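Tokens for chain A. Residues wanted.
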């Protein structure tokens, strides 16, 4: 996703403003991004899509879109795989109409397959839907998201492999999911550095990423997410060292807050990031 700067915003409409004033409110509090939540229903109303596009543009809000949760590219049921690809295509159409450039989606589950088999099936399916997106001239990219449960297709390696093999694919990097999927692996700066080095090595650049961030509570086993928490909850991962690395690497990211308090934590993250930016003299 081409970005002029690092931008911050919530996963969904802000909680402290009515929807009709959402975009002007985000601008008012200093935010400049939002992820539209199409997780349960993909918007089709042309008037609504046009309104979102106009309001976001007027208030300088960069948009991404989260596709439905009901996507499983590696389902054992061929009908469900086909329906999943149709949901991605319909999400692409809606995103194009509202001016959202990036479509985040959960790739699905291993569904009894080996991780390698599931990944191959997902890549094959994505290849077909990407061709349809190209044929329709839709101005979007697809963002398979790093997932938070060991049973889900979507490890960091897997989403990077999708991006390596396919055009128009730029993964959505969810640090909370990476953290709990592997048993709470992000302890501090060095762990973030390792993740960023792997992304840069395989994608060639860190710019243009869509990032999801929140603190997250793991399940009782320690592997997999139970629920999201606001910044400062103590569950981790800590945003502070990531913000510092963002400044040092001079990245241009779309940083989406998935905290329960959405834009309030977006503002906190932006303030932390900008404090490091000022210290650097940026």
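Reply:
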């Amino acid at each position: 996703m081409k970005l002029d700067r690092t931008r911050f915003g919530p996963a969904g409409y802000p909680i402290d403003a009515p929807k009709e004033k959402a975009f002007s409110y985000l601008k008012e509090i200093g935010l400049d991004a939002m992820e539209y939540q199409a997780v349960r229903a993909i918007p089709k109303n042309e008037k609504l899509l046009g309104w979102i596009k106009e309001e976001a543009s007027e208030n300088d809000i960069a948009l991404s879109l989260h596709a439905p949760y009901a996507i499983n590219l590696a389902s054992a049921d061929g009908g469900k795989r086909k329906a999943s690809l149709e949901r991605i295509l319909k999400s692409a159409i809606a995103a194009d109409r509202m001016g959202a450039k990036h479509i985040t989606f959960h790739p699905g589950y291993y569904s009894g397959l080996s991780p390698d088999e599931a990944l191959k099936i997902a890549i094959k399916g994505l290849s077909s839907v990407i061709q349809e997106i190209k044929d329709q001239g839709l101005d979007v990219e697809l963002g398979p998201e790093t997932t938070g449960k060991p049973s889900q297709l979507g490890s960091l390696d897997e989403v990077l492999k999708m991006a390596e093999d396919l055009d128009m694919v730029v993964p959505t990097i969810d640090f909370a999911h990476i953290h709990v999927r592997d048993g709470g692996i992000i302890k501090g700066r060095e762990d973030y550095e390792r993740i960023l080095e792997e992304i840069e090595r395989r994608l060639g650049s860190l710019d243009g990423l869509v990032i999801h961030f929140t603190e997250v509570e793991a399940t009782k086993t320690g592997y997999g997410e139970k629920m999201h928490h606001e910044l400062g909850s103590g569950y981790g991962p800590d945003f502070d060292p990531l913000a510092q690395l963002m400044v040092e690497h001079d990245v241009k990211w779309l940083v989406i807050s998935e905290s329960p308090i959405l834009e309030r934590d977006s503002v906190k993250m932006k303030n932390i990031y900008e404090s490091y930016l000022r210290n650097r003299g940026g």
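The chain has one domain: 7-280. The chain has nine helices and twelve strands.
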